[in-house]
Amino acid sequence: MEVFHTSNGRVEYPDIYHSRKELDFGPGFYLTTLREQAERYSVRFFKRQEKAWLNIYELAFELKDWKVKIFNSYDEEWLDFVVACRTGNIIGDYDMVIGGIANDRVFDTLNLFFDKFIQKDEALRRLVFEKPNIQYCIRTESMIKKCLKFKDCIQL
Question: Could you write out the three-class secondary structure of the chain?
Fold first, then answer.
């Protein structure tokens, strides 16, 4: 499948070592199948007066060959996982985590929850209405090397 990663440069040889630690699914190399989502992410680079590049890859893997955690919805398990990862606690020894990205509306709900303005049940009530935009977080170098192939890079 074709996947995208937006960065401030060409990422021909991705790795997990340049990742920030407190992300949705912990440190890793993040991708999406939604080109529009990847292009929207470029705003963060433009705000810093940096160039933005859309890196395009081919991702091919068999679930049976890797330890993969999949979240199909914004539910309590997803929320607990994201809260743990965003506070620096890495859960599991997964090669990849697949699940919803914290877009603006989801991010607003998470912030209210993190800042203790709403309780967990209210956060879950709000999240149930959101349809996940799926992201792929490759968390091991071995999976990157074996499953991800660089195809192209386009300046946005």
Answer: CEEEEEECCCCCCCCCCCCCCCCCCCCCEEEECCHHHHHHHCHHHHHCCCCCEEEEEEECCCHHHCCEEECCCCCHHHHHHHHHHHCCCCCCCCCEEEEECCCHHHHHHHHHHHCCCCCHHHHHHHHCCCCCCEEEEECCHHHHHHHEEEEEEEEC
